[in-house]
Design brief:
about 290 residues, alpha/beta, Arc Repressor Mutant, subunit A, D-Maltodextrin-Binding Protein, domain 2, 11 helices, 14 strands, elongated
């Protein structure tokens, strides 16, 4: 059966009437008369050959056919509105939402984003930071940049680079440290990964002391605490290059440990969009250029 083209105004009139269960309120929303809304809905019913509303003395009630049509139109108009919102200055802006570990965002990604913006002005990039705990589906993320071994269930992961950990401190604290055996005499700041210091001491063949320093859920906060003299932090020095160059932090020893890599991840079930492909290509090029 060939279905005649249905007028958009009639579909819009039905959708508004179904939400309000009132032709009058639908007319007020769409800035037309109640009679015009009623006419549009009646025309739609005639085209479809079904009754969409039961007209009651004090309003409207959706029929089974109306109940079936309502959510389809509601979602369709929502998607149309969302797409039209992406047009800015006569150009289409494709939204791209990326969840990023805060340390990676501040220490590596943000200084490079202007380059991405200049290369892809039509991509509306949205950055959401986290502490490496992320729900791609639940948070509506296209990508997540996270730290670990790359093995996350239902996820495709592309390796970006490693970020080994090494002890850093403020310049004042650094003056009191000449050898790894001096570290236990200073407060050793901790992350939620409890074995980091033990693994670093093992790497330099020094017995690991009891670690009683403050615990932080963010490397950024721990780095700031170290810069202010609160103790020595075990940090991915690659992501704190600016603090090291400025002299706020000092790297104490060359010895480092690798506990994982940074990865660009997405759900395997998510089909990459053009914006996603552009971001991945750009990100991998930036990571490869840096080496």
């Amino acid at each position: 059966m060939i279905r005649p083209t249905l007028p958009l105004n009639a579909l819009r009139a039905f959708e508004a009437s179904a939400r309000h269960l009132s032709f009058t309120k639908a007319g007020l929303e769409l800035c037309v008369t109640q009679a015009a809304i009623s006419h549009h809905v009646k025309s739609l019913e005639e085209n479809l050959g079904v009754q969409l509303f039961r007209r009651l003395p004090r309003g409207l009630a959706l029929t089974d056919e109306g109940l079936a049509l309502m959510p389809v139109l509601e979602e369709s108009f929502r998607r149309i509105g969302a797409t039209l919102d992406q047009f800015e200055g006569g150009l289409f802006q494709e939204a791209l939402t990326v969840g990023v570990v805060g340390t990676f965002a501040v220490g590596w990604l943000l200084p490079r984003l202007q380059d991405f913006r200049e290369a892809h002005p039509r991509i509306d990039l949205r950055i959401l930071t986290n502490n490496n705990r992320v729900d791609l589906a639940g948070e509506g993320l296209d990508y997540a940049i996270r730290f670990g071994n790359g093995a996350w269930h239902g996820t495709e992961a592309v390796r970006l680079f490693a970020a080994p950990l090494s002890p850093v401190s403020s310049p004042e604290v650094a003056q009191r440290v000449r050898h790894p055996t001096d570290l236990p005499k200073q407060p050793l700041l901790r992350s939620y990964r409890a074995d980091e210091w033990a693994r670093w001491f093992a790497a330099v063949d020094v017995a690991c002391p009891a670690i009683r320093g403050m615990v932080f859920d963010s490397s950024l906060t721990m780095a700031e605490a170290a810069a202010q003299g609160a103790g020595i932090a075990l940090l991915p020095v690659r992501l704190f290059a600016r603090d090291l160059q400025m002299g706020r932090l000092v790297r104490l020893f060359d010895a480092e440990i690798a506990l994982g890599d940074y990865w660009l991840t997405r759900l395997k079930s998510k089909q990459p969009t053009a914006a996603m492909q552009a971001f991945q290509s750009w990100l991998l090029a930036q990571a490869g250029t840096e080496g």
